[in-house]
DNA sequence: GTCTATAGCCCGATAGAC
DNA sequence: GTCTATCGGGCTATAGAC
């Protein structure tokens, strides 16, 4: 249906505009009118395409969490060695940052906005689901003797997960053009892995 | 003067209430009326104590940056060994998180709010000033052979500074009672330092 | 599908009584 | 020093014309 297709194009364009502005200025500081202005449409008219501002926020994040689930699954299934799994998890994370840069930045910057709304609970549960994976790699590494025996699994896994995400945010915002994700993932995993094996 | 002293007490009480609410819910999501309710006063009456909401935000952060300057100065002056300086910098950071927990959390969560207002430029310049210190330790460590030679100074120093702060935020919010700052700083610096010397 | 126009709400801040 | 009362403005979202 051509009407639907044309509608989808406009819709996709507006989603992209909203994602860009939300990532640049934050959700709370970007009004519906701002998005309308940037998309060449009046604020009120956006409600023909979306039911609410949060629907738009939701559309930006839908897909990214399940994509990361799949990337982490692949990262863990390739090997049984904890150090190799760790490096693969770092690379998988940066692959996601590269595919969903706006969702990455918005999630990092607007945690409080998202946490205050029950409809975005799926983002928090995804983070906890992924933390269990990071934690399992740390525990396996300690048990198998690949990582140092004195690591606190909870502290270590939180630290590496947080460090990878915050490095990803910085990269998306400041140096995406200058440095490839493989370079960055390699340098990041080398530092963090050295701390676990050292 | 007793009137001034009594006024200062009330003022300090309101600052503490504002700091708590800003840290819990975020600045944008905490209204003047919210602070008034929590302090047992009407919103409008707060303007007898402060000129604006941002004045209150400012009072919460004033002092913490210069205190951190001093802590870092002391950390660096104690030794010339880069590894020891690194551990001292981590400890200094957590000392600051312990002394100014609300300022720490607000700074981490409301970066966008603060970055959008010129009056809070001093927070960003402080972060850059402190980053130069982290970077100098990394560079000194590489040059003196204490750290691995292949470290990218910019990436590494950003990573450790970010990782320390985000770990501090998590600690302030979730486990301040359960774990002392010395324990946490020790575990954190051990992991990060291992990545630099590994 | 986009427009005009506005309802309804919350916000920061102010004026003046007590 | 706190109150009552309110101004002026921005916001999300809606109703109905075109």
Detailed description of the structure:
Two copies of one chain form a homodimer. With 198 residues, the first copy, chain A, is mainly α. Chain A has two domains: 1-51, Homeodomain-like (Arc Repressor Mutant, subunit A, Orthogonal Bundle), CATH 1.10.10.60; 60-197, Tetracycline Repressor, domain 2 (Orthogonal Bundle), CATH 1.10.357.10. The first copy, chain A, is 75% helix and 0% strand. The first copy, chain A, has ten helices and no strands. The first copy, chain A, has helices at residues 2-25, 32-39, 53-61, 64-77, 82-99, 101-109, 111-115, 121-143, 153-174, 181-197. In chain A, helix 4 (64-77) packs antiparallel against helix 5 (82-99) and helix 6 (101-109) crosses helix 9 (153-174). The longest helix of chain A is centred in the N-terminal third of the chain and has 24 residues, at 2-25. Chain A is elongated, with a radius of gyration of 19 Å. The relative contact order of chain A is 0.11. Residues 1-6 of chain A have low confidence and may be disordered. Chain A binds a DNA duplex (18 and 18 nucleotides) through residues 7, 10, 31-33, 41-45, 47-49, 51-53.
Strand content of chain A: under 5%
Helix-strand sequence of chain A = HHHHHHHHHH
Task: Indicate the overall shape of chain A.
Answer: elongated
CATH architecture identity of the largest domain in chain A: Orthogonal Bundle
CATH class of the largest domain in chain A: Mainly Alpha
Mean pLDDT across all residues of chain A, rounded? 95
Count of discrete alpha- or pi-helical segments spanning 4 or more residues of chain A: 10
CATH topology heading of the largest domain in chain A: Tetracycline Repressor, domain 2
SS content category of chain A: mainly alpha
Task: State the CATH superfamily name of the largest domain in chain A.
Answer: Tetracycline Repressor, domain 2
Oligomer: homodimer
Q: Share of helix among residues of chain A?
A: over 70%
Distance between the termini of chain A: 60 Å
- Ranges of chain A with pLDDT <50 over ≥5 residues? 1-6
Number of folding domains of chain A?
2
Largest interface: A-B, 34 and 34 residues
- The total of beta strands of chain A comes to 0
C-alpha Rg of chain A, in Å? 19 Å
**Major sheet description of chain A:** none
